[in-house]
Amino acid sequence: MSFRSIEQLLRRNSKIKISQSIANGIHDQKEERSVQALRESLLATNQLPEKFDDHHVLLRFLRMRGFNVIKAKEMFLNMLKWREDCAVDTIAKDFKFEEFDALKRCYPHGFHGVDRFGRPLYIERIGSVDLSKLMQVTSIDRYIKYHISEQEKTLSLRYPACSVAAKKHISSTTAILDVKGLGMNNFSKAAREMFIEIQKIDSNYYPETLHQLYIINAGSGFRALWKVLKTFMEARTLKKIQVLGTNYLSTVLEAVEPSNLPEFLGGTCTCSATGGCLLQDKGPWTDAGIIRASKVRSLQQDM
């Protein structure tokens, strides 16, 4: 091994130790050993890009595969291939979603503050979606690219900013899905295709980034639809989902402060000055001071 190779290896060893020390609390020893085993296996075959050489990234893949190192490695390598095939690393620069404003008008969704732990809070009013207008505004392929670009933004900006604001490691999202009025009759073929593809992407390539999903205002029509939709989901993901009816508020407020919950969902936030709660991407990731601090922390990890 050359001096340069040894130097790079020492630098990467230092990097992962710093990454570990940033996390709050003591890691489980079994987790530590599994992460190290996966990391060594990937390094041995030169299949661990430096941007993914991170304790928490590797841990997500291990958790999704029940700490089976062989299966976690296979999943990780599939993710790398997908990113290369779909040019994910350049999507923020190359993909321009000009229909963003029009999409928001017929598909209310967005990030809105954080939960009580400090995780990003994502809200989607899928029951209010005008599917006919949505398909006029964009295509399934373009919407999926938009979804990927948002996932990348969450990993690179939202989680680091939330980690700085909360003073602890944040790497997952709490989500609220309002399905009022949604059922088998108005969930079109195009909507099903979009759901299945997005679920596949999130499960296979962004594992363990969902902390909890609250599906609210679920009526009998949605519950019938849910029996079909959940067959496309991993068992580990299903355990993180609560399907609630109209009496959801007390459960949701256990996870979210009223000030971070829009008024239309029973909270106290209106965001009237900025065009509505789902239009402004509210959260620590819009605070210039926090963004600067998260960038400094990232540079320290790379030293």
Description:
The protein is of the alpha/beta class and 303 residues long. It has two domains: 3-85, N-terminal domain of phosphatidylinositol transfer protein sec14p (Helicase, Ruva Protein, domain 3, Orthogonal Bundle), CATH 1.10.8; 94-299, CRAL-TRIO lipid binding domain (Phosphatidylinositol Transfer Protein Sec14p), CATH 3.40.525.10. It contains 13 helices and five strands. The protein has a five-stranded mixed β-sheet with strand order 1-2-3-4-5. α9 (189-205) links the parallel β3 and β4 (210-216). α3 packs across α4 (69-85), α8 crosses α9 (189-205) and α8 crosses α13 (288-302). The chain is globular, with a radius of gyration of 20 Å.
DSSP strand (E) fraction? 5-15%
Number of helices: 13
By secondary-structure content and strand pairing, the structural class works out as: alpha/beta
CATH class of the largest domain: Alpha Beta
* Proportion in helices: 40-55%
Strand order, largest beta sheet: 1-2-3-4-5
Largest sheet: 5 strands, mixed
- In angstroms, what is the radius of gyration? 20 Å
Count all strands and give the number.
5
Shape: globular
Summarize model confidence as the mean pLDDT: 88
Q: Could you spell the SSE succession in H and E letters?
A: HHHHHHEEHHEHEHHEHH
Distance between the termini: 22 Å
CATH superfamily of the largest domain: CRAL-TRIO lipid binding domain
CATH topology-level fold name of the largest domain: Phosphatidylinositol Transfer Protein Sec14p
Keywords:
Phosphatidylinositol Transfer Protein Sec14p, 2 domains, PI/PC_transfer, 5-stranded mixed β-sheet, 52% helix, 5 strands, 303 residues, disordered N terminus, Helicase, Ruva Protein, domain 3, golgi apparatus, CRAL/TRIO_N_dom_sf, alpha/beta
